[in-house]
């Protein structure tokens, strides 16, 4: 009989690429991971790994086992969901991972609604970057999480997760009140009309997210589409900080709708032809779990209320 915990380690090795990365994800030592995978090989009766020096790759049998293991893990999630559905009342922890602007705007009402409807749930929120959510779900540190991408910088879906759409946001150019209104400066005709709000900001100082983040990449894309590369003065990842810097006349920045709900005095928001897309994610097979379904329903209601729909 193949051990489920060892199957998870093998799937994580296929995803992460190294035993060291798997060990870090599970707070194990690399030696412990290697020992567990060796036991799995004995259980399977065929070599699953090829070792060349310190490098480890999956054999053909290992790749086959990973594909079937993903099916097994999905089936276990479905079984857990089915058992939870026949239980009386929702109890136990519901671990939620969400990015800061969603935590500030959407989660408070979501948590209040869940607390009223399902007082037995232990609601636990972790604020984190969306790029960390898939690993948190796979490693069972989270039960549900929020992911986002931009239409100009789409992100490939994680094959081990299911998602449902939550929000399609307008993205704004945040500028100080002192910046002239769009249309007062001539720009080349080659610049697309969709980039109109950016034209005034081509020579401005910019407040960018940290290099390597999705927000940074999306900002570079929309600016280059408008025919220029932004000149960075400041780097900040917290949108409240970004807006405070804009209000202080320190530059301009790209801000999604959730983060722009209550801009400070001195900031104007100019809509761009770009969208940020947020999805609710959970492990494949967990969609029918009552706690997952309750969260999806509650955050959809909170989002509709926030948007005034």
How is this structure best described in words?
The radius of gyration is 23 Å and the shape is globular. It starts with a helix and ends with a helix. Helix 1 (about 5-15) packs across helix 3. It folds into 3 domains: about 5-85, Orthogonal Bundle (Arc Repressor Mutant, subunit A), CATH 1.10.10; about 90-160 and about 280-305, D-Maltodextrin-Binding Protein, domain 2 (3-Layer(aba) Sandwich), CATH 3.40.190.10; about 170-275, Periplasmic binding protein-like II (D-Maltodextrin-Binding Protein, domain 2). Helix content is about 40%, strand content about 25%. With about 300 residues, the protein is α/β, with parallel strands linked by helices.
Give me the secondary-structure topology.
Layout: H1 4-16, H2 19-26, H3 30-44, E1 49-52, E2 55-58, H4 60-86, E3 92-98, H5 100-105, H6 107-117, E4 121-127, H7 133-138, E5 144-150, E6 161-176, E7 205-208, H8 214-225, E8 231-235, H9 239-247, E9 253-256, E10 267-283, H10 290-307
Parallel strand pairs: 3-4, 3-5, 7-8
Antiparallel strand pairs: 1-2, 5-10, 6-9, 6-10
Helix pairs in contact: 1-3, 1-4, 2-3, 6-10
